[in-house]
Amino acid sequence: MHLFHRQSGELYCEQVSVGELAERHGTPLYVYSQGALSGRYRDLSDALEPLDHRVCYAVKANSNLAVLRVLARLGAGFDIVSEGELRRVIAAGGAAGRCVFAGVGKSEREIEFALRRGIYCFNVESIPELVRINRVAARLGKIAPVAVRLNPNIDAHTHAKITTGTYQNKFGVPFERVEEACARAARLKNLRLRGLQMHIGSQLTKAEPFEAAVKKVIPLARKLAARHGLEFLSIGGGLGIVYDRALASGSPAWWQSPPSRGFITPAAYAGRLAPLLKPLGLRILIEPGRFIVGNAGILVTRVEYVKKTGVKTFVIVDAAMNDLIRPAFYDAFHEIVPVSRHTNLLVSSDVVGPICESGDYFCRDRPLPKVRAGDYLALMSAGAYGFVQASNYNSRPLAAEVLVNGARSAVIRRRQRLPELWAGETFPAWLR
Ligand SMILES: Cc1ncc(COP(=O)(O)O)c(C=O)c1O
């Protein structure tokens, strides 16, 4: 199913014209396809059918309440990293009892809130954290469910800022110390050791690192399951998506077409991992974020000026690094397409935003169809780690978000109003 596609040269999200959405709601504008994100969830969950499994969507990738509600209604669990994310899941109609709580720095307040709400499990990243959770649980007269997050020391061969499974990273308990951490958890009276967890990195496009990590962990998981009666093993998230047309299948709607050229698909992922995991007899959790929402969203922006310097053509748009920081932060590639195509003439262009930073660009020296001021452009595959990382830098309000479902569309987050930017600020007495 192609959910972003062209009709008579115009970009559509499902049955809704992206240009009309931009006219109606203004830009910068995030647009998400409900069909695309539900389809991705189902593809993955169906592929894992041979296992007793739960897909815990990683809320950090896109935490809009409507997105969470779509996934909750499909039966998803959630991977959360803060009280704020847990409150979002609950506000969207999800259950704390289907959430795993990750992160190296859980505060006492966050632990207490999650315990009171009946969290499924804390994925614990250190012995001091085990001790803290035990103390909070004892104070509340509760037994806290915990899993030990292990660091398998496996290089996922992805961008350095999204590698998490080596000893250079802050995450998890070193592989050689996991038995000791589990023994400690078992001795702490207000803890119940429920599982093991790992997450080796994000945007992994091949099966091999997942397979290597799973193969390394299985003997340990078997031993610890026998010793402590574990219930689950979570193999984390990290499934990569296609961002770049050049790497995709070449179809005009490549951002929905099944990845090719060696990219991992749900079937290949499950085909490689399920036979290894099934004999363990544990429930298998996965925590995908990007894979579910990444290709399901775009960022629509308007061209303000075309500035030619003799050396370069700068296409200056109304979106900026504060709306989508991925190119500046991770050197990420986003395909950029005109919302209405009027020409096939290509011009080597730098698409840049209005922020006063040289790093405020979406692409450099890329051949793009020639555009004029007032045209709309779409940055494809912006559904994951897009809006959630937006900031108010340069006192720019947060963009609006729209969800499309078939022929229907609705604003799921209105554009931030300027006075909201300074609403929490006050003058000290000496400046009044
Ligand atoms: C513990 C954990 N699980 C899941 C994810 C989701 O990763 P992805 O969006 O690559 O699937 C992350 C991402 O940082 C994570 O840290």
What do these coordinates show?
This protein is an alpha/beta fold and 432 residues long. It folds into 2 domains: 102-287, Alanine racemase (TIM Barrel, Alpha-Beta Barrel), CATH 3.20.20.10; 295-416, Beta Barrel (Lyase, Ornithine Decarboxylase, Chain A, domain 1), CATH 2.40.37. 28% of the residues lie in helices and 25% in strands. The chain is built from 12 helices and 21 strands. Strands 4, 14, 15, 16, 17, 18, 19, 20 and 21 form a 9-stranded mixed β-sheet that branches. It starts with a strand and ends in an 11-residue tail after the last helix. The mean pLDDT is 94. The structure holds pyridoxal-5'-phosphate.
Q: What structural category do the secondary elements indicate? A: alpha/beta
**Alpha carbon gap, first and last residue:** 60 Å
Major sheet details: 9 strands, mixed
Number of domains: 2
CATH class descriptor name of the largest domain? Alpha Beta
Low-confidence stretches: none
CATH topology of the largest domain: TIM Barrel
Q: What is the mean pLDDT? A: 94
Q: In percent terms, what proportion of residues is strand?
A: 25-35%
Shape summary: globular
Classify the helix fraction into a percent range. Answer: 25-40%
Helical element count?
A: 12
The overall strand count is 21
The second-level CATH architecture of the largest domain is Alpha-Beta Barrel
Bound molecules: pyridoxal-5'-phosphate
Name the CATH superfamily classification of the largest domain: Alanine racemase
The radius of gyration is: 23 Å
